[in-house]
Fold this sequence. Notes:
Helix content is 61%, strand content 10%. By secondary structure, the chain is mainly alpha-helical. The radius of gyration is 17 Å and the shape is globular.
Amino acid sequence: MELDCVSAAEKITGFIRNKFETLGRKTAVLGVSGGIDSAVVLYLAALALGPERISALLMPYKTSDRDELGKTVEMLKNRDIRYRIIDISPMVDPYFSLYFINSDPLRMGNKMARERMSILFDHAQMMNGL
């Protein structure tokens, strides 16, 4: 199957613009990890709404790669996209240290994902975003 990337991008950005207009939302609040998935979403949202309407949240854990975080910050700065870094370690660690001393990486990863989603929902609400 061959994908027409230009046509796909036009459809996706049109959908994004339409949803923001329909819902009356001003800001796209996006979790940015530095990976390809979040980079593509960030690119399409900025294309649809303009970089001034994007708020990127970087939510590293204490073991996250600091070099990757730095590269992501540099990319956001180069595209004039506002961002905020929120370390999720103080939110995740107490749960496991209080209730589950011996936690495995899968459970830790699941808890981190839930913390990140909670932060994204909260910021979207605070900023009249989506």
